[in-house]
Amino acid sequence: MAMSLFLNLMFPPPPSIFVIAMSVISFVALANYGLSEVRGKHLNYSKFWNVNNSNNNSKKHIKFSSKVGMLLLYSPAFLAATASFWIFPNEGFRTTILRCALTLHYFKRVFESLFVHKYSASMLLESAIPITLSYLMSTITMIYGQHLTLDLPEPPINLLYPGLVLFLIGIIGNFYHHYLLSKLRGKGEKEYKIPKGGLFGIVICPHYLFEIIEFYGLSFISQTLYGFSFTIGTTFYLLGRSYATRNWYISKFDDFPKNVKAVIPFFF
């Protein structure tokens, strides 16, 4: 019953070993990163940029500023999404909406990296590389997987328009809470503070919550095997990252409100 419903929500699996393999790899890798976050082994950026290496001074690590690191994370995916308009022209309405959404998503990320975020730490190259490759390969695979649906019949249940609504809610909510985070620090300040405003009063990572909503919007627009696999994997990763973030705030601030959850209001 559940499998039948799921199959009605997406295009048939593509005749592509590459896309099917990437669907499995993306889901497993992202879910594993989420589990690692829960276990305390973090990808080294933001407040966790040096947490796994503080006691390992014998190993040389290549690091750069967080601003440069964030641009490295998002720029290749943005360029790939933009280039897809020339590589696969005249692909139809659904594919055009998907490519516009992906381009807007990564343009927003680059814009925030340049003009919104305020930085206090560095980023390690060994953490930046897998994140950059994940964003780049997911963008390429999602667009290519959509290209393979060009001559296929539409799924019985059309999620394109609900997906577009979810995407817009997600990207606006994510940007708003990133803006609130940027206003926590005055000029020259680098210390962390407990965020306030928006949904920060009930979850410590509302920007992750809206990012999850945004990615479900993308998967609904796409309705492909890869779109759903990447989104579900991303959900597991962001759940793990938000859990670790909440624990970090509890360890750093004695007055952190215990009723504030990690990412899902009143639940988790």
UniProtKB/TrEMBL annotation:
User: Which membrane topology term applies here?
Assistant: Multi-pass membrane protein
Which classification does the entry list for the species?
Eukaryota, Viridiplantae, Streptophyta, Embryophyta, Tracheophyta
Where found? Membrane
InterPro entries referenced in this protein's UniProt entry, alphabetically: 3-oxo-5_a-steroid_4-DH_C (IPR001104), SRD5A/TECR (IPR039357)
Q: Pfam family of this protein, just one?
A: Steroid_dh
Q: What is this protein called?
A: Steroid 5-alpha-reductase DET2-like
**Gene Ontology CC entries for this record:** membrane
Residue ranges annotated as transmembrane are 16-35, 68-87, 123-145, 157-176, 197-218, 224-244
Q: Does the keyword Metal-binding apply?
A: no
Task: Write the gene name.
Answer: LOC101496093
